[in-house]
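Hi R.,

Here's the chain you asked about this morning:
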Amino acid sequence: METWTIKTPDDTRWAVIALSGEFDLYAVRRLREPITTLIEDNGPWIALDLSQVWFIDTTAVGMLVRLVHHLRAGDGDLALVAPRGQVRRILRWTNLTCLFPVFDSLSDMLGDPATR
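And the predicted structure, written out as tokens:
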């Protein structure tokens, strides 16, 4: 993964992490600590903006599954925003689009009353 940014939009419980580049073993290692800190500071509601991610591997898929279970155990959730191309295909092929709320855009997620 090349970069990520973290933001918390106003009037929502969600912390949004926007990723870019490859979401792979290297990225998973680099993201563990920031995600743990984010959960401790802001609570168990995380949205991953994947609109700029063009590749995902099995390590990242495994991290997503573990993370959603961890967040839900803390009465939170994990939403995926705008997965494209190979990332969306992998999520569909592994049937993980049924596990996560998946939104086409951040504005769709924030505008959905169920996610506020």
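The first helix runs from residue 25 to 42.

Let me know if you need anything else.
M.
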